[in-house]
Predict the structure.
Amino acid sequence: MPQLDWSTFVSQAFWLIVCFCALWAMLAFWIMPKLANVVEQRKRKIVDYVQKADFFNTAAKNSLNKYNETLAAAKAQAERQLSDGRAELKKQLESTNRQMTEQLNKKIADNEFLLASEKNETLLQIEDISQELAYSILQKLGFLNISREEVAKVALKEKNNG
């Protein structure tokens, strides 16, 4: 094998060192800077994307907070309006109930007055009818000398005594 020949070791070592140095220089001064540049650009893009994501995340959180605040304010306003509506409805119901009660009490009083006056008229009519009936009975029994006025006087006496 020619690689193992001692006479070519020096030239092989020389070319090994020359090729190694050329490859190292090419890597160090041409390929590595390009790779480092690409890696740096990627890092910058990633940092930029992270910053944009943080910005959008912050904006989304702010929007969510504003939404929650607006929703809470709307709920509170709706609750106030609902309680105000309930209170207004309660006042209206109480007012209507009071008016109806007053009207019913007035009608009851009017009807009681009507009943009392009709009762008095009926009692007077009953008294007149009973006096007339008593006079008729007395006439049929043969007490012809008793007048209607005398029957009325007796009835008045009974009424006052009883």
DSSP finds two helices and no strands in the chain. Residues 76 and 115 are 57 Å apart (CA to CA). The helical segments are 9-141, 148-161. Residues 48-161 form one domain.
